[in-house]
Amino acid sequence: MTPIVRHSICRVVTDLDRAGADPRLRRARVATLVSLGAACLTSLLMPVAALFVESRTTWIVLGAVGLCLYGPALGGALYAAATPWLSGVVRRRLLAAFGAAAALSVPLLGPVGTGEWNTWAWLGASIVGFVPLLVQPRTAVVLTLAVLAVAAGTALTTGGSVVGYLLITIGIGLAIAVMSALPVWLWDLLVQARAGRAAQARLAVTEERLRFARDVHDLLGHRLAVIALKAELAARLAPADAERAAAEAAEVQRLAASALTEVRQAVHGYRAVDLRDQLAAVSKILQSSGVRCTVTQAAGDLPTEVATQLALLLREASTNVLRHSRARWCTIDISRDGNEVRMTIANDGAAGAGPDRLSNGLRGAAERLSDLDGTLRTREENGRFTLEATLQAAS
Questions:
Q1: Nearest 5 degrees, angle CA 23-CA 28-CA 31?
Q2: CB neighbours of 342 closer than 8 A, spacing ≥ 6?
Q3: Around 190, how many Cα atoms within 13 Å sit in the side-chain half-sphere?
Q4: Are the CB atoms for 178 and 266 separated by under 8 Å?
Q5: Which of 123, 262, 266, 296 has the smallest set of CB atoms within 10 Å of its CB?
Q6: Contact status, residue 354 vs residue 380, Cβ threshold 8 Å
Q7: 164-204 confidence digits (pLDDT tens)
Q8: DSSP single-letter state for residue 144
Q9: What mean pLDDT comes out for the span 367-390?
Q10: Which of helix, strand or coil describes residue 72?
Q11: At 238, which helix (H) or strand (E)?
């Protein structure tokens, strides 16, 4: 995957995790940076050693300056590769600083060791190893060829072995590329999974909006068509048959009031929804998002009104699990004790990121339940978020 594509995916993830809310993502990023840092230090060991064997004071000073410029610049570029929330301007500046430091390292470090230590070949190897992580593949190929040409030129200028310079640049460069590719690849997999989960949450919200839109369309489409026909008929009958026209107008009023009532019921979630279908759909969505889901359902059918309310609450709760938590498991338990029906939904991914208790979703659900003498309670304890709803079912 190219850095630009990886950056686009990471931008989705950092909308949720920019503040470091997800400890798993934070730990993975730290591990990636540590691995890249280790590979970076490996490529600098030989140039540092070459400074200690260099006898010319001028080149010791110049070489130290070169390392002080190159090391932090390389570190900054690698930091940008694993930090997706950096702005484009900062990212470009870090890459430009690395390019400038790499170019300056040639005259500053190339003569250190008088060609016997192949000093700059190790820096060239780090460029060859890390550049695929920083730029597009085509650009990386061009830069790699340019580095090999510079390595050969440095060897000829300083009296070193061209073959030795090229072997170190290519061999160590490939080793660094392998060392850095695995953690970055794993980091890519993690951020793609996190982005997929965020997309799944947005999809769930979008599907719910589409469902509501279809419900409203189904409710109003037929009613409005009939109302339009009745109103037209009343208008035609008014000059000739005032009594019948009045009857048709009264029918229009009745149809309009009925449509208004149905729309209000749809808005408040009173339309019947199949609870078993919702349980199956929610379980499938959670499991596809990496959340282990266990469902326990009471035997027998519940009253339609109770099942509808539980299904609507289940939709809201599952959306919150996807959008507001980092759950690894979720349990859904529906039990019945006499006339009392209880639904308990718990997950382990709260950690202070649970849904706002004043959010419209849960507040609206609590209002709907209270209209039916039901209750809705939520609690968070040791990273575990629990939602518990109770309803009274007619015997």
A1: 125
A2: 333, 334, 335, 336, 388, 389, 390, 391
A3: 20
A4: no
A5: 296
A6: yes
A7: 999 999 999 999 998 888 888 887 787 777 777 777 777 77
A8: H
A9: 85
A10: helix
A11: none
- Name the strands in the sheet holding 340-347, side by side, starting at the edge strand that comes first in the sequence: 292-297, 329-337, 340-347, 384-392, 375-381
Distance CA 70, CA 99 (A): 9
Helix or strand (DSSP H, E) at 15:
helix 3-17
pTM tops 0.85, yes or no? no
Contacts of 74 (CB under 8 A, 6+ apart): 40, 98, 101, 126, 130
Share of the chain above pLDDT 70, in %: 86
Tens digit of pLDDT for each residue in 305-352?
Answer: 888 888 888 888 887 777 666 788 999 999 988 888 999 999 987 655
Q: Report how far Cα 139 is from the mean position of its chain's Cα atoms.
A: 28
DSSP letter string, 165-177 = HHHHHHHHHHHHH
Q: Which of 24-33's residues contact partners 24+ apart within 8 Å by CB, and which partners?
A: 24/190, 24/326, 25/190, 25/191, 25/194, 28/186, 28/187, 28/190, 29/82, 29/83, 29/187, 31/183, 32/82, 32/183, 32/184, 32/186, 32/187, 33/78, 33/79, 33/82
The dihedral of CA 264, 270, 273, 275: what is its sign?
positive
Cα separation of 151 and 183, whole Å? 28
Name residue, tokens 């659900």. 365
